[in-house]
């Protein structure tokens, strides 16, 4: 049997190269520069992420663009590529002990590229959009800081901190709703608002919202209370599905621990 271990310090350069190469392949395959979060999370594990500068890989896409040459690849992802050019952030992050996440599949689907284009156009053409953009960024940072504080506190002031996190997350949802209204897209559609509000009214639920770019793809809930709360959420969603004509199904997924290393190196 092989023992699976997290990368040692001597493996870090290889892991960075794998990450860069995977991001390049992802961009070429998609024909656009996306967030890159899913690639980064697959390599680095449970993280708080900020995207690299799109200009780093945008030259590899476009109509009639020739595939990257070996020299192109070496320049961007090789051991001698500029470290500063890869300005993404990928810091270990995860839920505090006692909190878990459940994902609900809505089974409808939204066109993420179309939504993103309309939000970008709105931001470009509306002078006041940047203020809302940065307010949302700051609100997300407040929620992140609250989760970090809860992880450090353990059981001390846990209830008080969880209540504050709940209030802070409601501010995030309010700002997302305003952004969607301004851009004319359903970042948090009305049906999702009703579902999230009702779910957050359940005992033990800190947050319920739409993940990713939003829309009708899915919903998530973060909760305390273990399996009893999870069963309560799943039963509530099952009831909601029957009374609101929505294809809603809880997914049997679990969040990874804080600092989960992601990519692992198989060693004999």
Class from secondary-structure proportions = alpha+beta
Shape: globular
Which percent bin holds the helix content?
A: 40-55%
Mean pLDDT: 85
Mind summarizing the main beta sheet? 4 strands, antiparallel
Terminal Cα span: 8 Å
Low-confidence stretches: none
Rg from Cα: 20 Å
Number of strands: 8
Summarize the helix and strand pattern as letters. Answer: EHHEHHEEHHHHEEHEE
Give me the number of helical elements: 9
Beta content? 5-15%
Task: Describe this structure in a few short sentences.
The chain is α+β, with helices and mostly antiparallel strands.
Describe the structure.
The chain has 268 residues and is of the alpha+beta class. It is built from nine helices and eight strands. Helices cover 50% and strands 13% of the residues. The chain has a four-stranded antiparallel sheet.
């Amino acid at each position: 049997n092989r023992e699976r271990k997290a990368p040692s310090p001597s493996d870090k350069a290889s892991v960075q190269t794998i990450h860069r190469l995977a991001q390049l392949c992802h961009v070429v395959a998609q024909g656009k520069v996306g967030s890159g979060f899913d690639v980064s999370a697959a390599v680095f594990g449970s993280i708080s992420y900020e995207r690299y500068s799109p200009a780093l890989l945008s030259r590899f896409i476009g109509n009639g663009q020739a595939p990257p040459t070996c020299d192109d690849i070496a320049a961007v992802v090789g051991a001698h590529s500029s470290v500063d050019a890869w300005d993404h952030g990928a810091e270990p992050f995860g839920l505090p002990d006692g909190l878990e996440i459940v994902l609900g599949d809505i089974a409808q689907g939204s066109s993420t590229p179309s939504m993103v284009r309309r939000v970008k156009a709105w931001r470009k053409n509306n002078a006041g959009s940047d203020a809302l953009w940065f307010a949302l960024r700051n609100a997300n940072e407040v929620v992140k800081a609250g989760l970090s504080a809860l992880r450090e506190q353990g059981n001390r002031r846990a209830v008080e901190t969880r209540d504050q996190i709940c209030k802070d997350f409601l501010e995030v949802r309010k700002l997302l709703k305003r952004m969607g209204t301004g851009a004319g897209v359903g970042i948090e559609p009305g049906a999702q608002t009703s579902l999230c509000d009702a779910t957050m009214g359940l005992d033990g639920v800190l947050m319920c919202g739409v993940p990713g770019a939003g829309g009708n793809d899915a919903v998530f809930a973060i909760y305390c209370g273990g399996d009893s709360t999870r069963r309560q959420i799943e039963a509530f969603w099952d009831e909601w599905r029957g009374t609101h004509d929505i294809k809603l199904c809880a997914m049997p997924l679990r969040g990874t621990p804080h600092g989960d290393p992601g990519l692992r190196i198989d060693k004999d």
